[in-house]
Amino acid sequence: MRPPSTPLDFPMAPEGSSRSRGQALDPQAFLEELQRELLRSLARLGEQSRAAIPESATVTDLLSSALRDEIEIAEIAAQWLTDEPDLDLRLGLARQVGDEARHFEMMCDRVRELGSDPTSDPRTRAHSAIFRYLRGLQTPAERLAAGLAREGVARLRNALLAEVCTARGDDRTAQLCLEGVGEDEVRHLDFCRRELLRYALTTEDQEAARRAMARTLQLAEEASDPSRAAKAPPAPPPEPTAAGR
Ligand SMILES: [Fe+2]
């Protein structure tokens, strides 16, 4: 476990650090770069995901498949918080665990209201590739960058789900996706952005954050269209670095 740390302000970066060598971006500029890349990827993923929704899929089918994402995001946040010495990060992750558990329960309740059973219990299936990748991330910068991507993907998925529900006249489920769940996701995105400004300071952390975001988005694309896994270029190194710990 890394010791508790207070990230240095840039003016205090010692001689010889990556910042003093002029290699790291200003944190705000770095965050803006990440967000531009995220928006580009989400636009592509949105088109792909919309096209992949089968005409025959019911609202309960779509809600049931979202349940797995909700429980996995809770599980990842829970794993990350256990070895996180920074109290702000730990509490932020703890809040996210509670939020995701609530999303899971709200979606289960809605499936039941619609007359179905949330029978696709996500615990009976193997964890997804995204889950296995995220679980291995070690440093705050890469966890936060991956978290930003993961929450962005979740928000996109819920917006698409709301779109389908509205088109089918199910305003109640659309409202659940946009307000009950979506408002929490906005807070989770804000949390990742705010904390990245404290942790993506060095060249090493910024590179690790870029790789973590790119790999998370690549896995999200592969999940929405499995044929892309075969076409995808070689993935970045799957092993997270120990930098920042
Ligand atoms: Fe969620």
Written description of the protein model:
With about 240 residues, the protein is mostly helical. The chain has one domain: Ferritin, core subunit, four-helix bundle (Ferritin, Up-down Bundle). It has eight helices and no strands. Helix 1 packs parallel to helix 5, helix 3 runs antiparallel to helix 6 and helix 4 runs antiparallel to helix 7. The longest helix has 29 residues. The chain starts with about 25 loop residues before the first helix and ends in a 14-residue tail after the last helix. Fe (ii) ion binds next to helix 2 and helix 3.
- Give the distance, in angstroms, between the N- and C-terminal Cα atoms: 7 Å
Bound molecules: fe (ii) ion
Overall average residue pLDDT? 84
Protein structure class:
mainly alpha
- Biggest sheet statistics: none
CATH topology heading: Ferritin
Low-confidence stretches: 1-21, 230-245
Order of helices and strands: HHHHHHHH
Tally of individual domains: 1
Q: How does CATH name the architecture?
A: Up-down Bundle
Q: Number of helix segments?
A: 8
CATH domain class: Mainly Alpha
Q: What is the general shape? A: globular
Cα gyration radius (Å): 19 Å
Tally of extended strands? 0
**CATH homologous superfamily descriptor:** Ferritin, core subunit, four-helix bundle
Which range best describes the helical content: under 10%, 10-25%, 25-40%, 40-55%, 55-70% or over 70%?
55-70%
Q: Tell me the fraction of residues in β-strands, as a range.
A: under 5%
